[in-house]
Specification:
mainly alpha, 24 helices
Length: about 625
């Protein structure tokens, strides 16, 4: 676990360094851009009929330099902030801009049903709720991407070509690769890079618009009044040139950032599926497909770094946002010795296919992986699985999972659920009986699938469901761990923004929140007060802060919820350290019971921390 966090910190430092270089390079480009403007202003200001003779030409050089620099910077910054605000609303926005269509969880289309099953299987392996799935139906190439700003609003998108041409094992490997991007936090970085790239390309777009407007203006006026149009045209050409140069510069740094993260995502996909040959086979299918992986979309350049492989055909190899396919295949399958041609337009090479088949013979594909995933899904009754895939029924199914075990509280909650207009009483009774036969682990799996179905509902209905879930929880006087965990997971996964996060408090408040959280973990994991004290002491030593065990800690889930609100406001590095301390606490006795596992999983999900193997 420490190695995983160390790798993430190293990748984050390198990424921030490259982003700083990106900003500095763009700043230098902006600084250079105003020199041609000064030269043009010097030429046009000699004409008494131009507007430059009225104020601008009489300013000092320093004020002109400053004004132009600030103007260009303000324009680019506005464009970046606009695109960033637009894209951070969730992965669905990006998928729809690329022509994606939401795949309903209750679809009966055979290929789409296979896709949804694969996404659910990988979500189980990644220990996260099932994300929304989009299909790029008009894209015949083999490709895929993950998009979003947080884990809870991330989506998986697959092209029609990938759905039709890849085997189920290869499709699962590609989906697992995209899940790795979500788990590693690459989706948020991609949103930031897209916003920066849009700010640069906006300069070129503004230049093109100026050229067109100047050409139209020159047609409407006589030749004696075309000075402004001529100046506007030259300005547009300069903006277009600098926009193109900035785009190329951005592509270079974008390629440096993305290539290493693709290797990390390939490794993560192998960890999820235990089947590197399937991922290598998908890459080989892309390499030898006549259509390759090129995306037919006008805005593909802005989102090219999101995809599983190059969505564009760069005019220079080193501008590619992805490593060469041969290198990725050899890292996954060292025994493969085939050679790929650059951009083949013919049928798959028989030599490469034979080489890959021979490497698979030396490294047999593990067939047990899919069986393990399916067994976890098949442990749930078909009736419950059906309800979890129906967006309307999934709402009250989640509420059933959050029911209190104490009968008076449970009866009040059941009465509340039965009164909802979208609840079928007959189905409700059967589902409640079936849920009583499930242990906590399959209930978690059912919850993750149901959350994915609820995400298919319109935003207004999701908000209504969250309000009803909150009302359901308020009917209980005392919390129980599992219903509390299910309610927290559902509220966090379906919220549009971080639920209940408080601004960063002073150190005393933060220490008190950590004390409450770790005290609850120690209390749930150990019945002996001495063992509870030793477990908390181990966690305190890891954090290097003094902590004391409070009495009745395991019964204070309400206080734990308030502590969670404080901890959500901490920086991600501090949250990672705290989750590591939680792991130290529960592993103190070399045994993790069901209550500890439930609480640890809930904390990791709500704090959006990855790398905790719950």
């Amino acid at each position: 676990m420490s190695g995983f966090f160390s790798q993430q910190r190293q990748a984050r430092r390198k990424t921030w360094l490259l982003l700083v270089l990106f900003v500095l390079a763009v700043g230098a480009l902006i600084a250079l851009a105003h020199w041609p403007f000064l030269w043009l202003m010097g030429i046009f200001s000699t004409d008494p009929y131009t507007l430059f003779n009225y104020g601008i030409a009489h300013q000092t050089d320093a004020s002109i330099h400053l004004g132009l620099t600030l103007s260009i910077t303000a324009i680019i910054s506005t464009a970046i902030l606009y695109k960033y605000w637009q894209l951070r609303r969730g992965g669905s926005v990006i998928a729809e801009q690329l022509g994606g269509q939401l795949v309903q969880t209750n679809t009966y289309h055979e290929q789409q049903r296979v896709l949804l099953n694969v996404v659910e299987e990988v979500a189980i392996a990644a220990r996260m709720p099932v994300p929304s799935t989009y299909l790029l139906a008009n894209q015949p190439s083999i490709n895929a991407f993950a998009a979003g700003y947080h884990r809870r609003d991330s989506v998986i998108a697959i092209t029609q070509g990938a759905l039709e041409q890849l085997s189920r094992a290869q499709l699962q490997a590609v989906v697992a690769h995209e899940f790795s991007h979500i788990v590693n936090g690459d989706v948020r970085l991609n949103v930031r890079m897209s916003a920066l790239l849009y700010g640069i390309t906006f300069i070129g777009q503004a230049g093109e618009n100026l050229i067109y407007s100047a050409m139209n203006a020159s047609r409407r006026h006589n030749a004696q009044r075309t000075d402004g149009a001529g100046f506007t045209t030259v300005i547009g050409v300069i903006l277009t040139l600098f926009g193109w140069l900035g785009t190329q510069l951005g592509d270079i740094i974008k390629a440096l950032i993305c290539r290493q993260r693709e290797y990390l995502a390939d490794a993560g996909a192998t960890q999820f599926t235990r089947n590197p040959q399937a991922l290598a086979g998908a890459l080989l299918a892309i390499a030898e497909n006549p259509r390759k992986n090129t995306l037919r979309q006008s805005n593909a350049h802005l989102f090219s770094h999101y995809f599983f492989s190059d969505a564009l055909s760069p005019w220079l190899t080193w501008l590619s946002t992805h490593p060469p396919l041969t290198q990725r295949i050899r890292r996954l399958d060292p025994h493969w010795h085939g050679q790929l041609k650059e951009r083949p337009r013919t049928a798959p090479s028989q030599a490469n296919t034979m080489a890959f088949s021979a490497s698979q013979g030396r490294n047999p594909q593990p067939q047990v992986v899919y069986g393990d995933f399916r067994e976890k899904l098949m442990g749930i009754e078909d009736s419950l699985s059906y309800l979890a895939h129906e967006p309307s029924d999934a709402r009250w199914l989640v509420m059933l999972l959050c029911l209190h075990q104490h009968w008076p509280n449970r009866q009040a909650q059941l009465t509340f659920i039965a009164a909802l207009p979208y609840v079928d009483i007959y189905k409700l009774d059967r589902a409640e009986l079936a849920l009583t036969k499930l242990s906590t682990e399959p209930q978690f799996r059912l919850l993750e699938v149901a959350i994915g179905a609820i995400r298919c509902l319109p935003k207004a209905q999701r908000s209504q469901f969250l309000a009803q879930l909150k009302e359901l929880a308020a009917l209980c006087e005392n919390w129980e761990l599992v219903p509390w965990s299910f309610q927290q997971l559902s509220a966090h996964a379906l919220a549009d923004k971080t639920v209940g996060a408080l601004p960063v408090m002073n150190k005393a408040v933060i220490v008190a929140a950590c004390e409450q959280l770790l005290g609850a973990l120690a209390s749930y994991g150990h019945s002996d007060p001495e063992h509870q004290r030793l477990a908390l002491a181990a966690a305190a030593q890891h954090l290097q802060i003094p902590l004391s065990l409070e009495h009745e800690a395991r019964c204070q889930l309400t206080r734990l919820q308030r502590a969670l609100r404080v901890i959500k406001g901490l920086p991600v590095v501090k949250r990672q350290q705290l989750l590591q301390a939680c792991r130290v606490c529960v592993e103190h006795d070399a045994h993790i019971n069901e209550a500890e596992q439930t609480l640890l999983y809930t904390l990791a999900a709500c704090l959006e921390i990855d790398g905790i193997d719950c």
